[in-house]
Alkyl hydroperoxide reductase subunit F (Maribrevibacterium harenarium), 1280 residues
Amino acid sequence: MQFYVDGFRGGNPDIKNAAPTNRREYSTNAPLPEKVDVLIAGTGPAGLCLAAQLAKFPEISTMIVEASPENIERGKADGINTRTMEMFEAFGFADKVKREGYWVNQTNFWMPDPQDRTRIKRLGRVQDVADDSSEMPHAIINQARIHEFFLEVMRNAPTRMQPDYNWSVQSLTVDNSTEDHPVTVVLVNTGVNAGQTKTVRANYVVGCDGARSNVRKAIGGELHGDAAHQAWGVMDILANTDFPDIRQKCLITSATEGNVLIIPREGGYLFRMYVELDKLKDDERVANRNFTAQDTIAAANRIMAPYSIDVKEVVWWSVYEIGHRMTDRFDDVPDSERANRNPRVFTAGDACHTHSPKAGQGMNVSMQDTFNLGWKLAHVLRGQADASLLHTYSQERWLEAKRLVETDHEWARIMSAPPGESELDGGDEPRFVRQFKLNLEFTGGLAVKYDQSRLTGSNQYQALATGEEVGRRFHSAPVVRLSDAKQLQLGHVAEADGRWRIYAFAGENDGSTDSAIHRLADWLEQDANSPVVKYTREGDDIDSVIDFRGVFQQTFDELEYDKMPSLLRPTKGKLGLQDHEKVFCVDHKGLGDIFTMRGINREQGCMIVVRPDQYIAQVLPLKATDELAAFFDGILVQPE
Amino acid sequence: MQFYVDGFRGGNPDIKNAAPTNRREYSTNAPLPEKVDVLIAGTGPAGLCLAAQLAKFPEISTMIVEASPENIERGKADGINTRTMEMFEAFGFADKVKREGYWVNQTNFWMPDPQDRTRIKRLGRVQDVADDSSEMPHAIINQARIHEFFLEVMRNAPTRMQPDYNWSVQSLTVDNSTEDHPVTVVLVNTGVNAGQTKTVRANYVVGCDGARSNVRKAIGGELHGDAAHQAWGVMDILANTDFPDIRQKCLITSATEGNVLIIPREGGYLFRMYVELDKLKDDERVANRNFTAQDTIAAANRIMAPYSIDVKEVVWWSVYEIGHRMTDRFDDVPDSERANRNPRVFTAGDACHTHSPKAGQGMNVSMQDTFNLGWKLAHVLRGQADASLLHTYSQERWLEAKRLVETDHEWARIMSAPPGESELDGGDEPRFVRQFKLNLEFTGGLAVKYDQSRLTGSNQYQALATGEEVGRRFHSAPVVRLSDAKQLQLGHVAEADGRWRIYAFAGENDGSTDSAIHRLADWLEQDANSPVVKYTREGDDIDSVIDFRGVFQQTFDELEYDKMPSLLRPTKGKLGLQDHEKVFCVDHKGLGDIFTMRGINREQGCMIVVRPDQYIAQVLPLKATDELAAFFDGILVQPE
Ligand SMILES: Cc1cc2nc3c(=O)[nH]c(=O)nc-3n(C[C@H](O)[C@H](O)[C@H](O)COP(=O)(O)OP(=O)(O)OC[C@H]3O[C@@H](n4cnc5c(N)ncnc54)[C@H](O)[C@@H]3O)c2cc1C
Ligand SMILES: Cc1cc2nc3c(=O)[nH]c(=O)nc-3n(C[C@H](O)[C@H](O)[C@H](O)COP(=O)(O)OP(=O)(O)OC[C@H]3O[C@@H](n4cnc5c(N)ncnc54)[C@H](O)[C@@H]3O)c2cc1C
């Protein structure tokens, strides 16, 4: 992490200098603003992930309202997949989740013992995160803590952003005839002044207001989908048991009593159980059945026989029915009008797609939604891109949500089906295990791949980097920084700061002053057609829009730092200090060679253009300056 | 990290439940107490490390006073050696230092270019932390931040401890005729009520009040030592340079202009330089020479020619002269009286030994002093040990300080000596480099070895664990936890909580229910002579005094958890919840086999008894229950 570029300041470097414009400077209870750039509804994972990203830009006024009086304390989701952990790294709190959370290392499959079907037996075990699928663990932690980490990022950001609790979005209208804060939002107080309303005008509104979203309703969205008419209980408990795998993720299928999913939790004692309860009748809702926590505990004990659970404290519990539902689009522009106008209102997370909790996707996908939207809003509001960019949010995320609902659906079907004979005799690999393995990349959040578009290039040059697929997330790998010989993950240079990144991988023997990387760097720094030259605002740091990094095939002791192109050693900030963290070498301490690990063409090298949300936009030859210029010309606009 | 053993509680798990007795519960400005168990003078690294440790024990009343009005903001020490990082792990903030600090990976040696002695040239490079010497990096970070991390541990502890700023220890007297708070301390206010005095009575006083310690003076201590009559300048600067190794630690020797030491700092831009200034006359003090920051910058530029430094901001600077001084003992008991009375007053850190800053030892040794003292004070004050234990503090730490002063002295001599011809022709390895390599273990803080005593066993069974030497710190290695297959460092199970640890390494094929580890565990749990049985207070957790852990030679999938002895699966806390984190296996993912790495006898296994400050007290065969009982009988006393 970098700091002090504008001069030394004591204390916690995560606390950024406050921008003079921040509303909270006067008082935490400063009155609501009349107008904002962005109004976010809801402080769930989707809303907070967006707010944390926008909080870094003092030139954008953002407000986030929440109907509840405060953050939640327990319950709801708890699974953080590896992809989300990679994103947390960019927000600066992955280390905290790693330290505090439970790590899912193994998933165990328990099924009726073929010798005695009244007893369950462990029949399989799978490593939960495949080697080198991500540098991050699959972590489990209370959703409330994730909220707190985002809230801390917001509080520490220049805007000192905080939610306005006790305000609910009641309704909104869009006036498509103006560009000046066209969305009028009616907020209603849910606190001490309950019922009091207040009108705020916004340039953009993002509904992160959960499954019953008022924002969705206001733009005419409807959740479609199906329900499996199956009740499940979920509980977070402190309990003792003679079940030996209680600190590992377990999928348990009994012969006649149904299924249980065990998810160990943070702190070493707590764990979660998803327990299959009764089938529901076609017209029956789970709420009408009056299930109790005791029903869930009793069912769990039946399913897990001969083992038993002795519950000491029920921390949280709930019952739900399996269902998957989503809306037709994630913004306010019907397909028929896409060519004519740009979106003003968006929905994200549960507001536009809901999932079966057991697959552990809801919270992850919700955050990935707004991580996709955040930089696009920032680009438009900071004058870096045309507002038509905002169409790509619904396009990209709707397709992903659809894929997720389909996979999720398949998984739930398999989980709820009675085990077939073939999987009990130990002959076949059980269907469970097979499907689970197939799904690992998917449940890790790593299978997301955006289709070719103005944001995502073709696979024309994919052969130059076979392990870094265009449209998928940039897959980190170990490197060593040239200036200080530090081992680190290349992907960790990406912060959630709305910047683009170009990783230039040097060809063989590159490192001299006359090489493809040098020529690319010099072109980027000086040529009139270079996106760095064209799109960087005068007076801003040269890497403020596009952050250029070099990766060499040599080890750190084989390269000369003073021979590096000047774009890889730029001066920055108020004091004009030199940045020494742009050049990387291969790891020399046994963690692996990034060129081999990611299939980078050693002879030619290549450049990989990565979006602010960590997805790969382009893989190009080092000399493809025309393609590079054309790509950015299709997205960015010149500063005024 | 473990939490929720007494039931769920939302929010940050590092914030412990407040004890009802804590003074700050009423108000941050609660009046000073009349009597305390421990009064600590000074909030430098030594004082804060002690306070952070005692803060965890609500039954001990501790106060820490500081003459200054608040924490420092910049300057002073910045090097955290690997041993100190290991200790920070036990306090829970090593991750923060790792994330925020600079890592010293390589040290470079620059000397006059043999071809042209007016220019410096890089003549050597050494990996700064030898492979597997510690799992921790050598980190560099502002001393003020270390203070803040300790202050946070204190604030979050049950006692909610905070320093009483603006109170200086003026004098103290010890009444050896009473056991009831025999030390009377006169505090004088240095804030708004400047000059006001206040008397506090304490059972123990620890002078962590720096080189001019009043506490030391009060117990008749005097610093003896020598000075090299050589002035050095030190500055923390934001600067640009064409010197290519500016982000690596560098020792630079010029032909005629003297030496410079470069220490890169946190944040990517800041760095520190130690710059050799003039020789002082015999009776001259550095303060009388009126050196300026500009003098130091100018000298640095002369030494580093042909490279130059363009300083943009001087964050902090100082001049000093090299010197090494220490007192004859670190407590108030002269040798002649050791047999008759126990110490009541201690000194730690700079109060009893000062060093040349460049070796980067002062801050580290100061904290190691009080980490040694902290658990001993806690043992005595909580009735776990007899007060004679407190003699061992001065015994152990005085010898270490002496060794440090000697090494430090040698190093300073070499650093200040003009380079001999033999090291300039590139033939020999320069003296610098040779000595630096020899010193690495020492400067890492890893060479500390306490002599045989009631706390430190003999080397009789050392062959059972050749890589875990009795008297030295327990050297961590990778393991996998059986219950959840998590990879971790065995040493990281040790928290700064005043508990002893026994790591039982299983012999070959151990893992069945009839094995040496099982017999040891059962003896520990049940036998009347077992230290666990004898010294654990009724109603306390069975691991509250001695934390027993098992390490097996199998991988996690080869062992059955339900076959483990019950002491390795104890129930704990208010709810009687089972602890699943006591059993470890060898790493199966390529990080190495702990038995091989630490030379553990595979056939017999062994047990390693580790003190609360992470030093190895005993290496014993698994069946040596008599020796184990005798060892603890020599230290612990039975609870009343
Ligand atoms: C009871 C429950 C149990 C769950 N259990 C699991 C589980 O076991 N596993 C799992 O993976 N997922 C679970 N989920 C789903 C998971 O929590 C969601 O997928 C995730 O929280 C979605 O994030 P979000 O930000 O889109 O919406 P939410 O987290 O639902 O956040 C929406 C926020 O908007 C607020 N809000 C609503 N309406 C308004 C309004 N009009 N104005 C202002 N604010 C408003 C709400 O108070 C809420 O804070 C559960 C959800 C619920 C509700
Ligand atoms: C100006 C300066 C520069 C240094 N530079 C370096 C360096 O470059 N590199 C390096 O490794 N080390 C350096 N050191 C040394 C390093 O900081 C010390 O070794 C380390 O801080 C020792 O820790 P300590 O807790 O023993 O004492 P200190 O950190 O000195 O803390 C003593 C504390 O006690 C307080 N105090 C003093 N008297 C009283 C009293 N009577 N009552 C109450 N409180 C009192 C002081 O205000 C101070 O806060 C420097 C020290 C100083 C003073």
